[in-house]
Design goal:
single chain; 257 residues; alpha+beta; Phosphatase 2c, domain 1; 6-stranded antiparallel sheet; 5-stranded antiparallel sheet; 7 helices; globular
Length: 257
């Protein structure tokens, strides 16, 4: 029985094209080392799908590098992941320069790296990572939006947050600026994985119409693909107008690193 079970989807939804990309790799037979990611190409810009594609291609090339770094010091693992984000950012900007679109090509990116009992998550933009068990679905990433910044500053009332159009205005992403400045979670040391814990990486089109109670359906799910598809269907039924992408990683048993 594998230590980790994985499901992924990426749907066009009601958009004319799908600008999202997902990525998962398990490097060995036991599946105790995993890199997973969701990239949401910025639809308000040009070539968002290309930006998302460049981001996941760069991750794929660096997957083993990132997982190997997880066996060392925390700072080294963080540096390895941040370097991959910056490499992706540089490649997206190089593509934009070659096509006369500097500052106009971008994507979000959220990435999970697992090795044994350790994990790290990094993100830039509003694609999220949740940690889900039978008690709760907890968002562990921070959305990089104007609305979130104003909320932190006390300039936006909590009751106005959900309906604010500023939730769609990103303050960080890959591509538009020379530095993408991603966040790393946890901030001070490796995260420690518990058995029957599910990580959910998802684009805003997937999560924006769902509640934490909805997401708890993934906790210990026997059929991750079915539950993930059901959640996507629920988003569409609740009038999601965006692409919908998600990766679920269920840890059934913790492998000691």
């Amino acid at each position: 029985m594998p230590l980790i079970r994985i499901a992924a989807l990426s749907l066009q939804g009601r958009r004319p094209t799908n600008q999202d990309r997902v990525f998962v790799t398990a490097v060995d037979a036991q599946q105790d080392r995993v890199v997973a990611a969701v990239a949401d190409g910025l639809g308000g810009m040009q070539a968002g799908d290309k930006a998302a594609e460049i981001a996941v291609q760069t991750l794929e090339e660096a997957a083993e590098e990132m997982m190997n770094s997880m066996s060392g010091e925390f700072s080294g693992a963080c540096d390895a992941i941040l370097n991959v984000f910056q490499r992706s950012n540089d490649r997206i900007r190089a593509y934009a320069r070659a096509h006369g679109q500097v500052g106009l090509v971008g994507t979000t990116l959220v990435t999970l790296v697992v090795r044994g009992e350790r994990f790290l998550v990094a993100n830039a933009g509003d694609s999220r990572c949740y940690v889900i068990d039978h008690s709760a679905a907890r968002q562990i990433t921070h959305d990089h939006t104007v609305a979130d910044t104003l909320l932190e500053q006390g300039a936006l009332a909590p009751g106005d947050y959900a309906s604010s159009p500023l939730r769609n205005q990103l303050t960080r992403s890959l591509g538009p600026k020379p530095q993408c400045d991603p966040d790393i979670f946890p901030r001070l040391e490796f995260g420690r994985i518990s058995a029957d814990c599910t990580f959910l990486l998802c684009s805003d089109g997937f999560y924006s119409k769902l509640t934490a109670a909805d997401l708890k359906a993934l906790a210990g799910a026997d059929d991750l693909d079915q539950i993930l598809s059901g959640l996507a269907d629920a988003s569409l039924e609740r009038d999601s107008t965006d692409n919908l992408s998600a990766v679920a990683v269920l840890v059934t048993e913790v492998a000691r690193s």
